[in-house]
Amino acid sequence: MFWNEKIETLKGQELRDLQLKRLKWTIHQTQNIPFYKRMFKEAGLHPDDIKTLEDIRKIPFTNKSDLRDGYPFGFLAVPMNKVNRIHTTSGTTGKPTVVAYTKGDLETWSELLARNFTMAGLKAGDIFQNAANYALFTGGLGIHMGAEKIGAAVVPSGTGNTKRQIEMIEDFKVTALHCTPSYAMHLTEVAEEMNADLSSLKVGCFGAEAWSENTRKDLENRLSVEAFDSYGMSELFGPGVAFECGEHDGLHIWHDSYLVEIIDPETGEVLEPGNHGELVVTPLVKEAMPLLRYRTRDITMLMEDDCPCGRGPKLARFFGRSDDMLTVRGINVFPSQVEHVLRSIPEVGDQFMVYIDRGESHLDEFTIQVEMNKTFFSGELSDFVKLQQKIVKTLQDTITVRARVELVEPGSLPRFEGKAKRVIDRRVI
Amino acid sequence: MVYYNEKLETMPKEETARLQYQELKALLDRVYRNSAFYHGKMKEAGVSPDDIKSIEDIRKLPFMKKTDLRDNYPDKLVCVDREDLVRFHVSSGTTGKPTVVSYTKNDIEMWADAVARSLTACGLGKRDVIQVCYGYGLFTGGLGLHYGAEKLGAVVIPASTGNTERQIELIQDLKTTAVAGTPSYFIHLLDVAKKMGVDIRKDTNLRIAVLGAEPWTEEMRRYIHDISGVTAHNIFGTSELSGPMFCDCEEMHGTHIHSDIAYTEIIDPETGEPLPPGEKGELTITVLKKEAFPMIRYRLGDVSSILEGECPCGRTSPRIDRITGRVDDMLIIRGINVFPSAVEHALLKNPFLTSHFVIEVSRKGRLDDMLVRVELKPEAMTDSINGLMQMQAVVERTLRDALNVAARVELCPPNSLPRFEGKAKRVIDKRVI
Amino acid sequence: MNEEYIIKQLSIFSENKAGKLAAIAKIFLDTGVSIQAFNIAEANNFGVIRVIVDKPEVAFEAFAKQNYALKYTDVLAIKMQDVPGGLFEAAKLIGELNINIEYAYAFRSGEYGALIVRVANPGEAAKALKKAGIELIPAANYHF
Q1: Within this chain, do residues A112 and A190 fall inside the same structural domain, yes or no?
Q2: Are residues A315 and A345 both part of a single domain?
């Protein structure tokens, strides 16, 4: 099934012509942004120098840190009165990265998601439960708009309260579920304990974190759904950048809307299809915040052949990052950011360790060990409880992760010489 | 005066009555044909669509109550095919099962249109940056304001609730001009801003707040204006009607209920008789334009009155006064409706508790605080402090899951909470509004 | 299995409220039960009163009758020499036996000190402690 068959199956010269036209428009659009104006000037480039798709290699890369430096509106290519929505995404330290959308952008974004969901066999009449975090995070509202676009009925269930999520699937006869794969595993187990009847489900859209073929088998068997992998990133709109088709062998990225390059993350050299490297994307359809050659830091590969489903070449499933970003319960977290937040709590100070585990519940868990700072020791049991609660709340508020806090005695945590590694990921995916 | 839809908002009385009648007639024909629930209810009352010959005849129709929603959970009130539904929202019910409302594409459009009109009446437009500090998801506040503000063409920041310091940073950094949220949260936000050394007047572009989901007063409006220069407007609505959708205009005297969208009555809660403007009674609303989940003469349980006279803003729609109370025991905690019966129901899930409990509601700073005192069964005693604290945590979790709002729990010894003969008085509300 | 060393402590649930302790003490008074050791641990809005008395059954019944939440907890009493280092001697041996103390409280009892400890398996622990040469105070010294 196609949402827009012509554009989804566009290939060869016709596709290249469209891409080039849109690339030229995008470059034109970026010239409203001081950062890109400066970049072109410094590189001795003129927008008209980009005459073919290959000419894009003349343009330097854009990094996440560039976006951070442009906070809040440095990357806006349209006047504020053309902006219709703002989302934010986690930055590497204190300030978030701002992403902005025009009305047209919101329309385009939901269009891309509609293609994905149609590819997964969904349509009007389906009941779509969206168990993703709404609000500033793009996962919730993005997926919501896409499901609404295809005419499905959306249950905006948000995150948490697993029993109620399960009751709603039963009561509303939900046919499609969107959440992180690890949350889906957790929900499956709770449903099994409750003896719930989830037989109405047929499609699971799982994304925002990496997951294995074993997890897919498990989910497909126990939840009796067809599981689809979903990839996205707020800087490129949000979820829906790439998505699996019924072949379940890689993810379709919409070539009319995103120009894909795979590079060697060390040298920046562009690699041929069939080679693993870092995904670099130039979105071709973004009005409010166009980007050129954006380094996603995600490691994948562009496949050499077209897909039997009729759409173009896919991206291999994602298997790593070229930086130290972690994905915890679908939320992107930088170790530097966790450290920054903990250090800002006076009672914590410098001596802490952060462990990330995937527990029996299949959900990622943060355990934070904090050495009790002598200055703050009052002897009251209730003060310890309050401090634990404060740390939990601060982390919840700032990076929306839930953590367990263990207070340990002064001097009991490891000391580092040289670069400290205080955030330790112990998960096996 | 700026209107979002001048023709509909300033329509003369007679023309409005004609339009309302047409809409009501079409609605009744539809539900009489398609809905077993409405068909049965009208039959029982001995009335058919043909008996309704003018908008005033609406009083011949039976009322709907919250219990009708609970008894017909989850989908017996839905009047359209499943293919036509595009959204579900869920609000707290009186017992275990929540209240579910569903929407067609047109319903969502109508709702967004109502919100866009209301925001315009508050003085907002497409040049505004609106930060929505209502909860997103199943609660109608977040998505309701979001769609309305987006339809208006404003810049919408879906900030949702919580993390107040970050909210204030966003207000500064993103040059937010308006905030939507609950009045108590907004006042809390102003307090935090002050603590952070942020002067709303000098350091931000904030000028309007659109506040609702819980009762508030003219004194609070003045207070907000005095300390921040922000003009605060009231927004009203419940999930059964769609969600928040009606606001006061720049006159700030009464909430306009768009008359082409809804028909407003104030009734005597005892007799069900409609009361004239100026008299206090139970607010009863018929949404004339809903497709998926029609609400005909829905008794909201809120006490208000219709204001007399015409509004100088030129809008001809009726205005209701501030809500001054409830006809039932429903509580509003941080904008979320909580029925004591739902608390009771949730507590039953904890086998280590007796059936006795007390709810104490107060204000901690500016924010509502709900404390539920529960009794430990003697046989559940353990020597371990950790074990007891865990029980407390489990109860907190069950309440949070059932009510969608956090409550503090105090574990009390057996037989220490008051017993009641006859009607139990389990709620102590210490809040002063 | 070393039952003579297992002391029946009462653990009583109580609110942290003025007058609560007096109400509880009054019940001991009214039943003529004598308190041998007493300790309160507090958390949140409540506390757990841990008490060793001469007639645990009498006390238990009296409290239960008044609807208190309480239960018996088995604890051990370790005899400590009333000299500097007495606690260290005892604690060192317990640590070496790898016995985890959930909580403990101490009081002076005539010529010596007594350390009341709550451990996971008091029967086993008593055996091990005896074997290691630690002197335990028999329950009969407290319950008459």
Answers
A1: yes
A2: no
Which residue do the tokens 């896409």 mark?
A: A146
* Model confidence pTM above 0.95: no
Instruction: Give the residues across from A100 on adjacent strands.
Output: A86
> Testing the interface with B: which of C16, C17, C46, C50 to mutate, by most B Cβ within 10 A?
C46
- pLDDT tens sequence across C61-103: 999 888 888 999 999 999 988 788 888 888 888 888 899 898 9
CA A315 – CA A317 distance, rounded (Å): 6
Alpha-carbon dihedral sign for residues B112, B116, B122, B127:
positive
Q: Is B138 on the interface with A (CB under 8 A)?
A: yes
Q: Are B130 and B256 in contact (CB under 8 A)?
A: no
Q: Mean pLDDT, to the nearest integer, of B330-349?
A: 89
Residue A329 counted as domain residue: no
Pair (A338, A317) in one structural domain:
no
CATH of the domain at A258: 3.40.50.12780
Residue that finishes a domain, picked among A301, A323, A345: A323
Instruction: Answer yes or no: do A80 and A220 share one domain.
Output: yes
B396–C contact, CB cutoff 8 A = no
Cβ-based neighbours of B23, under 8 Å, separated by 6 or more: B260, B288, B289
A316 and A402 in a common domain: no
CATH code for the part of the protein at C75-141: 3.30.70.260
Q: What is d(CA B190, CA B167) in angstroms, rounded to the nearest whole number?
A: 11
**Facing residue for B136 by CB, picked from A125, A135, A163:** A135
Query: Which helix (H) or strand (E) covers residue B103, if one does?
Result: strand B99-104
Q: What is the domain class of C4-73 according to CATH?
A: alpha beta
What values do phi and psi take at A86, rounded to 5?
-130, 130
The helix/strand/coil state of B86 is: strand
Q: In A, which residues are within 8 Å of B105 by CB distance? A: 151
Of all residues in chain B, what percent are helix, strand and coil, respectively (each to 5)?
Answer: 35, 25, 40
A69 belongs to a structural domain: yes
> pLDDT tens for residues A156-203?
999 888 999 999 999 999 999 999 998 999 899 999 999 999 999 999
